[in-house]
Amino acid sequence: MQREARSREFYILALFFGLFVLFLYGPLSAILILSFQGPNGGLTFPLNGVSLRWFANLFETQAVGDFGGSFRRSLTLGLMVMAATVVVSLLAGLAFRRRFFGASALFYLAVASLVVPSIIISLGIGVLFQQLGLQPAWYSSAFGAHMTWTLPFGVLIMFAVFNRFSPVYEEAARDLGASSWQTFRHVLLPIIAPSLIGVGLFGFTLSYDEFARTLLAAGTYNTLPLEIYAMTTNVTTPVLYALGTVTTAFSFLVIVAAVLLILRLNRRRLKG
């Protein structure tokens, strides 16, 4: 009876998971299929032939839309946010290992942006730059807006990492004569490296596809999410689906690269 009950629970959970995956990736599969429309194909089913015409169209001069420029801006902004999120989150995690005055207030201030509507943050940063006589831009005001989104996640991850981190390793290194920098460089950093990669992945992916916090803070030039949104109102060919397929594939590639890097670091640490 217990075996039958467990089997029944397994199939129920498997069915639920299957429905979740279908709901999550169903729209992506539709975009993937429609991106292979024939040269005379439209934006809906059924397919009118099969071709790579719309992928090639991404690299041609567009009457509407700037694919290459918006992608480069999103990629650069994502890398900037990733680097800043990793560094600040690491420093915050190290600082909060010891209690100091105002630690609780600083923590709640850091995570408060998670509960503030994203569009309000974007609007506030854009207005602030204008009041200061500065021109909002994707590399300045949008960078700050994205940091309010990625930094709380990075800080929370590092808090969890250091809460489980045993100081015995650092004490042993100091007993052997290692300096503070040597302890950090050769003991602490290799152990928490996979977590730092996770923080970096969080920072990059959250920034790369962020729309609401970029909308009113990006200035003159669009990032890729803004460009895609603008194209939905004036592009009438499957090139939009081809762009969605390419950007989705790029996102999965980044995730796979991060996972492989983490596995390599873990393997090297076990060998060491």
From TrEMBL:
Xref: Gene3D superfamilies: MetI-like
Keyword Signal on entry: no
Domain of life: Bacteria
Main location: membrane
PROSITE patterns the UniProt entry points to: ABC_TM1
Transmembrane feature ranges: 12-36, 75-94, 106-129, 149-166, 187-206, 239-263
Cellular-component GO terms for this entry: plasma membrane
Membrane topology of the entry: Multi-pass membrane protein
InterPro entries the record matches: Bact_Polyamine_Transport, MetI-like, MetI-like_sf
GO biological process: transmembrane transport
Protein name in the entry: ABC transporter, membrane spanning protein (Spermidine/putrescine)
Organism of provenance: Pseudorhizobium banfieldiae
